[in-house]
Write a structure and sequence with these properties.
The chain is mainly alpha-helical. It is 85% helix and 0% strand.
Length: 156
């Protein structure tokens, strides 16, 4: 199960990056719900299975995979790796402090991770502040994380 979760995480992150590189910033709210919501919830599951440095390597490898598949997506890969690392730190801080069920902890930490990632990614990737994209991404990531945490919670 652990290997499958790692592979799914890397594929989802890579597909999100490649679709942004292909279709532009306006596809990001869709990605946020489908792929990043999955990554946020899956990261919480993985946090209980692997070490923090292994999660950092997984994030970096996913960024590298994006670049290997499409060199034109270089800045997207960098932005993704940087924002996901920052989001992972916020997520970890909240997940570690919240008491209760995995579901409660995952959704509380997803809010923190989604907030950090939603602000950091477009600024790093595109060099501008995009308030409407930030808000749309945040809402979609929290909603997607919620849906994915329900599904992943059944696998625990």
């Amino acid at each position: 199960m652990l290997i499958a979760a790692i592979v799914v995480y890397a594929i989802a992150m890579t597909l999100a990056n490649l679709s942004i590189a292909t279709f532009g910033v306006w596809v990001s709210p869709i990605n946020a719900f489908l792929f990043i919501g999955l990554d946020l919830a899956l990261r919480d599951w993985l946090q209980m299975q692997i070490k923090a440095w292994q999660m950092a390597v997984l994030i970096a490898v996913s960024g590298g995979l994006t670049y290997a598949l499409n060199q034109d997506a270089g800045m997207i890969a960098v932005a993704s790796a940087a924002s996901f690392t920052l989001a992972a730190l916020a997520d970890w801080a909240v997940f570690s402090k919240v008491n209760g069920s995995w579901f409660k902890r995952a959704n509380a930490s997803n809010v923190a991770g989604a907030a950090v990632d939603s602000v950091a990614f477009p600024i790093i990737a595109f060099g501008v502040l995009m308030p409407e994209i930030i808000v749309l991404q945040f809402v979609a990531k929290v909603a997607g994380g919620y849906v994915w945490s329900i599904l992943l919670g059944k696998l625990k």
